[in-house]
TrEMBL record:
Record protein name field: 8-oxo-dGTP diphosphatase
PROSITE patterns: NUDIX, NUDIX_BOX
Keywords: DNA damage, DNA repair, DNA replication, Hydrolase, Magnesium, Metal-binding, Mutator protein
Record flagged with keyword Transferase: no
Organism for this UniProt entry: Blautia ammoniilytica
Residue stretches making up the Nudix hydrolase domain: 2-132
Catalytic activity: 8-oxo-dGTP + H2O = 8-oxo-dGMP + diphosphate + H(+)
Length: 133
């Protein structure tokens, strides 16, 4: 099966405290309406961090500081294998403008289960919850 290498940002209000994280709903394609973390496919020659900074600028017109690695999700969708590197992040410049997503929410730990996550993100949500206040 084909592997797609993706990076995702778990953008927090504050990387030390992690009171809230930023989730978006996909605005197009096969998974439209599913909730996820902003990011996308890594292009040839890019480091995960470079790909992530580029994707966040493209999707949200925002500059981020990328922090520690959170988890790498390996998930088999029917037509491809997803390998997704996830990093904590914080906004350094910009206002998280939704260029591609159809909706967005800041979620507290208690609200993590309140949106319909993409299938690959379910196990990630459990991990993230352990780090939040
Ligand atoms: N960004 C992101 N993608 C996710 C998550 N969970 C998940 O299953 N995916 C899947 C959906 C897509 O099949 C793939 C990401 O591809 P993408 O379409 O966002 O990549 P891209 O921005 O480079 O887009 P494109 O130009 O190919 O449309 O990973 C997640 O939390 N964040």
């Amino acid at each position: 099966m084909k592997t797609i290498k993706v990076v995702a940002a778990i953008i927090c209000d504050n990387m030390k405290e992690k009171n809230k994280i930023f989730a978006t709903a996909r605005g197009y394609g096969e998974f439209k309406g599913g909730w996820e973390f902003p990011g996308g496919k890594v292009e040839a020659g890019e480091t995960p961090q470079q790909a992530l900074a580029r994707e966040i600028m493209e999707e949200l017109d925002t500059e981020i500081k990328i922090g520690e690695w959170v988890d790498t999700i390996e998930y088999d969708y029917p037509s491809f294998h997803l390998s997704m590197d996830c990093f904590w992040a914080e906004v350094t410049k910009g206002h998280l403008e939704l260029k591609e997503a159809e909706a967005a929410k800041w979620l507290t730990k208690d609200q993590l289960d309140s949106v319909a996550w993409l299938p690959a993100d379910i196990s990630l949500i459990n991990t993230i919850g352990k780090y939040m206040k």
